[in-house]
């Protein structure tokens, strides 16, 4: 018993060069995704994972043509079903469909390639037909079913309850661009204890106090004193950028995370600086006191005498 491929469901395709596919179409569909590579210049090209040399192409994963058509067919049937029902009922049935579809493709390049914008545009066209059918003409329908929310003049939303109108979701608003999604580094998982990595990535870690995790994330994992990255097992210490002795406050913008040994170095310098500041303050105080009275040099020493005592002495 061996694995056999059904010829009618099998297609040999090249992901980059159409001529090398048996039907001269590059790329293939898989679970509603279309996977294809495109020639790309130096800066946009994918890089070899080891050598970082540009490979000359980039991979784009988008919703497949069939999947897009199926989605629009579903939307169309819902809009048709609600020809005579209220706007609210139509929105209530469309929103979960849109949300679910965008979620399914959330890690694809749908946003980057403009597929989500295209889906929104197709829905608007269908809704305009729906409105025209109900009101007789578009301008009346526009006034009745579309409103302005924020900067957007064309929001399909209900008019009842101005404070909280029921609004149709769009594909673009919660689809994220593929460049925003940062892939998890090779072999790390939140469970293998690399708390520095996970704190930098998420700003939190179950094994690290929130304050330290937040600072690690803010500093992108770099110690500002030695400019080196923190590594697993390093001693992490919270430091007041302007020391408490000099009036620094205990708040996030005055805090940084340093290596234990870097913290020691900084504390030593802080102490020296604070001593200097104290000396300067002392000199200022002496100066002020001197100004209050009359004084003159006497054999290289300062003699401080008040007006009254000077008169007495002379
Ligand atoms: Zn350091």
State which percent range the strand residues make up.
Answer: 5-15%
Number of contiguous helices: 9
Distance between the termini: 126 Å
The value of Rg in angstroms is 35 Å
- Proportion of helical residues: 25-40%
Structural class, please? alpha+beta
Give the number of domains.
Answer: 2
Shape, per Cα inertia axes: elongated
- The tally of beta strands, per DSSP, is 9
- Low-pLDDT stretches are 308-314
Bound molecules: zinc ion
Briefly, what is this?
With 314 residues, this protein is α+β, with helices and mostly antiparallel strands. It contains 9 helices and 9 strands.
Helix and strand arrangement:
Elements (H helix, E strand, L loop, with lengths): L27 E3 L2 E7 L17 E7 L1 H17 L5 H18 L10 H21 L2 H8 E4 L2 E5 L14 H4 L20 H8 L7 H9 L17 E5 L14 E5 H33 L1 E5 L2 E5 L1 H7 L1
Helix pairs in contact: 1-2, 1-3, 3-4, 6-7
The chain binds zinc ion (ZN).
Can you describe what's shown?
The chain has 314 residues and is α+β, with helices and mostly antiparallel strands. The protein has two domains: 65-156, no CATH class; 184-314, no CATH class. The chain is 40% helix and 15% strand. It has nine helices and nine strands. The chain has helices spanning 65-81, 87-104, 115-135, 138-145, 171-174, 195-202, 210-218, 260-292, 307-313; strands spanning 28-30, 33-39, 57-63, 146-149, 152-156, 236-240, 255-259, 294-298, 301-305. The strands form four sheets. The chain has a three-stranded antiparallel beta sheet. Strand 1 and strand 2 (33-39) form a beta hairpin. Helix 1 (65-81) packs antiparallel against helix 2 and helix 1 runs parallel beside helix 3 (115-135). The chain is elongated. The model is unreliable at 308-314 (pLDDT under 50). Bound molecules: zinc ion. Zinc ion binds next to strand 7.
